[in-house]
Amino acid sequence: MREMAKMLLQLENVSKRYLRHTVVQDISFSIFEGQSLAILGKNGSGKSTILKIILGLSKATNGLVRQLRGDKLKIGYIPEQFPKNLRFTPDEYLYHLGKIQGLSSYYLQKRIPQLISQFQLDTVKNLWIHHLSKGMRQKVGIMQAILHEPDILVLDEPLSGLDMTTQQHLIEQILSLKKSGVAIIFTCHEMDLLRKVADRAIILEDKKIKEDFMLQEEIDGYMIIECRWHDSKACDLLRDVDGVTEYISLTEDVWRIQVVPSYSDRLIAQLLCWGASICSVTKHEDDHYEHKINEIFQT
To answer: In this protein, which residues make up the domain named ABC transporter (predicted)?
Structure first.
């Protein structure tokens, strides 16, 4: 059986007020290792306020923010607007930030060249940051946020104002971080980023969480595979298959299996290897959340 992901951070009934104005109210959710959570909502819905509370840049008026690793939890942050007029090269900027964070010179001399190569900034590493394009500055922003190898990466509108080519490259870098086990919390207005990166999404409305759902199941729908399969260990085998969300034995040798669409081909191949015969494959879609998200992104 796969090991359960460990909880890193938990918000419990968090509210934030400025004088008599309530920004967010009774916000509760958790984030786990390797999970990617999108916080969605119209402008002014409180998305950035929640990020600031998570980062410790703003204190909740009520409720609790629990860091399950205590002081050992490392969080990186990429703001929506990266400073433009920095008279440092990427190498110098990262080195000075690293020293401020208490990282050793030995560590930084190894880590910084790795990041510059990973983000393909070798050709501009000796240019001042204020001479770089917005896309390149955003890459430097991500590099500074992951310099100390954080457990959680917080991104506020990371693709805002970038061209499509740069957006795709940054999405690839974010996915690579996610695969390495970094938890991602982000806000965005791009459906492509949402579909490719997020496992889960919450929608803010009227200062509260209006919707909380697993993205692949609700936006992409799900596949239903019915098959003939006689195996006494069927339940044990299906329990450990990635993408399977539900399964039931209809008769002694007929199974109905629900699976995330992106995993359906892999599951069919695995069932055939186990000796099952496929009876039918159908797709079920629910466009409720997609309409809701499109409405938000258009504001």
So the answer is: 9-231
